[in-house]
Amino acid sequence: MIKEEQPHKYHVLARGVILTDNHLLVAHCIGMDNTFLPGGHVEFHESIRTSLYREINEELGLISEVGPYIGAVEAEHEDEGTYHQEINHIFITKLENADYRKNPESKESHLEFYWIPINEMDRHNLLPQPMRKIIENYINDVEGPFFESTFEEV
To answer: Which member of 51, 99, 109, 137 lies 3.0 to 4.6 Å from 142 by CB, making a disulfide possible if both were Cys?
Structure first.
């Protein structure tokens, strides 16, 4: 929970669920102990879908097809004294010639991308944690869209 005078930031993010042969493409910030879905910040005067397309192109140098919206995850965390609150908008996304046997090359030196078996999201610490439930619902054909949160329920 945020303290009154604590610095804080709010983030609107677009994330892509990229699946092939029961594998999920994840991003990893080198030196950290978690993974997350490819994508990133929505810029002002940019649609959420456009931002996801742009982020994947910037991070991977690849052209993507941003498909159906499957849900959102709101989350909060603290990093180096700053409170962060975020809303992640999640889309099924396709990459041309995606092959889980070959990890895509990152265009950003602080990131790496790799495929994980879909049943190993916990082992690879995919964050925010509620993202896992949304992905599981999607692959199990549970009708969405879905909303999950790290905040306590009222």
So the answer is: 137
